[in-house]
Amino acid sequence: MVLHRLTLLPQGVDILLPSGSPLTDIEYETPERYIPFGCRSGACGACIVEVLEGLDVLGEAGDEELDFLEDLGRADGKHRLACQCRLLGPATVRVD
């Protein structure tokens, strides 16, 4: 199994997740809830993160996610919904 490092800011926490995991899977790796989430389907916006490093290793954002980010005023190309990202390499995100 290939593991990738996810760094969460401002907490300064590094967590290893299996390749292809949604970022919200950190709940299985730590008792802390570093990334808030509600629906896990990209409909609530609770898990929005700013991607500081590794945007290219989080998988492509789908049209629905991009539309929702635009509705939230976060269509700047730096924000993603953590539940919709799949970790395919090391990344650093800031939790909003």
Automatic annotation (TrEMBL):
Domain 2Fe-2S ferredoxin-type, first and last residues per copy: 4-96
Alphabetical list of InterPro entries matching this protein: 2Fe-2S_ferredoxin-like_sf, 2Fe-2S_ferredoxin-type, 2Fe2S_fd_BS, Beta-grasp_dom_sf
Name of the protein in question: 2Fe-2S iron-sulfur cluster-binding protein
